[in-house]
Amino acid sequence: MILTRHPSNPILDASKIPYPGSLIFNAGVAKYQGQYVMIFRNDYCAEGEAAWADLRAGRRTTSPGFETSIGIATSRDGISWDVAPKPCWKLKTDEILRVYDPRLTVIDGVAYVCFAMDTRHGIRGGVAKTEDFSAFEILTVSSPDNRNMVLFPERVGGKYFRLERPFTVYSRGCDRFDLWSSRSPDLRYWGDNELVLAVENVPFANDKIGPAAPPIKTARGWLTTFHAVWRDPEANYGGWEPKWSKKYMAGLMLLDLENPSKVVAISDQPLIDTEAPYERNGFRNDVIFPGGMILEDSGEVKIYYGAADTVECLATAHVDDLLALCKPVQ
Ligand code: BMA
């Protein structure tokens, strides 16, 4: 068994949140200033918790109105978490509906948060800088539609480097989305975009793919997860939403150290497929979405992932076993 689900999974859920919270998932995690820091998405019901219960029980078919806040938690061991008493970030204006799915990368000791932003004119992806997670300085926001941005933990060839996932609806048809890269001299202006991995090159995805957790550096390359979506026309994956019919899995690949737009090796199997009850059943059944990946000095890799769009989980593996899963690309 290469990957071990942590026995205390889910490591964070709504029961541990000291403010309104229903769905705690898709967190970014990094080591920062001597401790583990988790920045997580919290979807909660503006109509009150009873509305969620009605949806779960089939007493209503429309999703209740929700709000999203971003929460923060810290840990000494990366397993048990102290949640701050208040959410750390929420953005809602006439134009911006919410920010969500935060990813955390520390570059030269500075914490950066990539985020998705729903607006009235499309979905955008951005990068913010923070010192202590009490305030966020937005450095850049993309044009729509783009999201799932992850920053590399160091510059590559002198440039900041990120993976991202534009939504190419018009030219690719519905849900044929691929994983792209871009570079920046200053974290603000992004360009040199390149296609990194196309959905048709992932045997276990037939719908769309995109980045997941920020990568870790190994001697053989940048090791990184990605999310891969399978839509089974015959299956109904359930979920509290009546029409949910997709399954999200974690894939694994290795990118070239000097040119991370190039995939050098990839696993032809999902790294994490849905299996545990907390992955199979929730707001959206059968969803695994990694957002944090930490390489320990021992060679252990901690992979943090949102499960069923409902809870946050942890799985561990040895870095050598993960590297062995990735087969060279010709
Ligand atoms: C995507 C995003 C993610 C979510 C996933 C599965 O489109 O909304 O935040 O985890 O769907 O529902």
Produce a short descriptive summary.
The chain has 330 residues and is mainly beta. It has 4 helices and 22 strands.
Description:
The chain has a single domain, classed as Tachylectin-2, Chain A, CATH 2.115.10.20. The chain starts with a strand and ends with a strand. The chain is mainly β and 330 residues long. Strands 14, 15, 16, 17, 18 and 22 form a six-stranded antiparallel β-sheet that branches. The model has no long low-confidence stretch (mean pLDDT 95). 7% of the residues lie in helices and 47% in strands. Strand 12 and strand 13 form a beta hairpin. The protein has four helices and 22 strands. The structure holds beta-D-mannopyranose. Beta-D-mannopyranose (BMA) binds next to loops.
Question: What's the helix and strand layout?
Answer:
Layout lengths: L3 E2 L17 E10 L2 E11 L3 H8 L9 E10 L6 E2 L12 E12 L2 E10 L2 E9 L6 E5 L4 E6 L8 E7 L2 H4 L6 E6 L6 E7 L10 E4 L4 E3 L2 E11 L14 E10 L7 E4 L10 H4 L7 E8 L4 E8 L3 E8 H7 L1 E2 L2
Antiparallel strand pairs: 1-21, 2-3, 3-4, 4-5, 6-7, 7-8, 8-9, 10-11, 11-12, 12-13, 14-16, 15-16, 16-17, 17-18, 18-22, 19-20, 20-21
Beta-D-mannopyranose (BMA) binds next to loops.
